[in-house]
């Protein structure tokens, strides 16, 4: 069967085996909602799925916070990306796009689907001269993400490389932030394509650093676009961003979800208690 694959992967096979308890419960909730609607429309008299419970579906697996790069690992990744066309055989246009995806995704914490769906028309500048990206996120919910300087500089550079205007007044609002490599650079790419581009880079980077950085190389071989989101959250909190700020920018429903990235608090707690109860 092989390892689990993300939904954006061409190797994703949702019906290759039985559903997990959580997926079964979700499928039953969808069917239940459909039958409730059918009852309201007087197509049927009863909901055959009412009252069915799935054992083991109540537990939600916590996010794996190991799916993030350390500061040093991320710096190494970006250094390798800087030399793609000169040292590793990438086309210049593909290398430029890859660097933009790394910088913009890392600086904003966007999901992969949000990255490929974002357009220039979603960018706004408020009365305080702060930059924001309006988008449609998970569950078709409208969201608003801050664009820090790293994201804005990456975007300006990438627009110039694509031959597009940098001035917002001259933007075509329908232009996707991530361009294709074909005859129409103003066209976008799919989530599957983004997954493939990043996986190709991560795999190549892993091979390049295997001898000197085996742990980082193994992480790169497992990495997906969502790792940039985890890395964004981890680094933002470690650099002093408030928990509520990171929660709002990631658009987590609960602050408990964001708090799992507080590795620094655990380090501080261990050191302070170690100092308080040091061995004689």
UniProtKB/TrEMBL annotation:
Keywords recorded for this protein, A-Z: DNA integration, DNA recombination, DNA-binding
Swiss-Prot/TrEMBL GO biological process terms: DNA integration; DNA recombination
InterPro entries cross-referenced by the UniProt entry: DNA_brk_join_enz (IPR011010), Integrase-like_cat_sf (IPR013762), Integrase_catalytic (IPR002104), Tyrosine_recombinase_XerCD (IPR050090)
Keyword field contains NAD: no
SUPFAM superfamilies: DNA breaking-rejoining enzymes
GO molecular function: DNA binding
Sequence ranges assigned to domain Tyr recombinase in this UniProt record: 75-274
ATP-binding found in the keyword field: no
Record-stated family: Belongs to the 'phage' integrase family.
Protein's UniProt name: Phage integrase family protein
Source taxonomy: Bacteria, Pseudomonadati, Pseudomonadota, Betaproteobacteria, Burkholderiales
């Amino acid at each position: 069967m092989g390892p689990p694959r993300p939904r954006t992967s061409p190797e994703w096979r949702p019906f290759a085996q039985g559903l997990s308890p959580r997926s079964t419960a979700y499928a039953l909730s969808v069917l239940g909602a459909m039958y409730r609607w059918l009852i309201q429309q007087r197509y049927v008299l009863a909901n055959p799925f009412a009252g069915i419970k799935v054992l083991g579906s109540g537990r939600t697996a916590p996010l794996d916070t190991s799916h993030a790069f350390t500061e040093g690992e991320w710096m190494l990744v970006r250094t390798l990306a800087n030399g793609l066309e000169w040292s590793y055989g990438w086309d210049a246009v593909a290398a430029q796009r890859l660097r933009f995806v790394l910088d913009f995704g890392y600086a904003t914490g966007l999901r992969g689907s949000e990255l490929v769906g974002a357009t220039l028309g979603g960018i706004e500048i408020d009365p305080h001269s702060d930059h924001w990206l309006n988008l449609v996120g998970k569950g078709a919910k409208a969201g608003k993400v801050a664009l820090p300087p790293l994201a804005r500089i990456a975007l300006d550079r990438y627009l110039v490389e694509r031959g597009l205007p940098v001035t917002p007044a001259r933007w075509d609002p329908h232009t996707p932030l991530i361009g294709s490599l074909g005859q129409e650079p103003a066209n976008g790419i799919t989530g599957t394509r983004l997954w493939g581009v990043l996986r190709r880079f991560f795999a190549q980077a892993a091979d390049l650093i295997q001898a000197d950085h085996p742990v980082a190389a193994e992480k790169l071989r497992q990495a997906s676009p969502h790792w940039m989101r985890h890395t964004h959250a981890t680094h933002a909190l470690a650099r002093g961003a408030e928990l509520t700020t990171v929660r709002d920018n990631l658009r987590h429903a609960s602050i408990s979800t964001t708090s799992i990235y507080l590795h620094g608090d655990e380090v501080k707690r261990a050191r302070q208690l170690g100092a308080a109860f040091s061995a004689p």
